[in-house]
Amino acid sequence: MNTAVDMQATELAAPQLKAAVWLWRPWYAKAWWAAIPVWWIGMAASTKVAPLEAFYDNAPAGFLNVLFFPMTALMVLGVGRAQHWLAGFASKGEGGPLCDEAPVTIANVWEEHDRAMKDLRAGTDMFDPRSGTLWIGNPISPNNGARISVF
What we know:
By secondary structure, the protein is an all-alpha fold. It has helices at 2-12, 19-23, 27-45, 50-56, 59-67, 70-91, 102-124, 133-136. Helices cover 66% and strands 0% of the residues. Keywords: Membrane, Transmembrane, Transmembrane helix.
């Protein structure tokens, strides 16, 4: 009996892959990580070699500095790992379907919330006549006696 339950649990759980699978194994990851030291060695050599200095001083090289920054590679290649890790949370839920009364109860709660927010706005909005003294003392209000002109 326990083996069937254990088998179901292992089938439902997503396999946990190591970070190296996402960061090192794909061909593009290997190419990127190999190009990073080449770029920065070229950058260091540009201080002594004039043609390299001209190349590394232009605007596209500035953008390539960002591309070949090791943290950029780590963040971009880590996106697959993060997506896989976050997808594991959704499959672990043990919630059941809503009962027949749940949608009605949720709708009632939202209606009650909307009503409470309208009452709150009525009491705190100085442009709403239901706000009482905020409306009466408002200089923009058409009901304010100071606004009435004698002309």
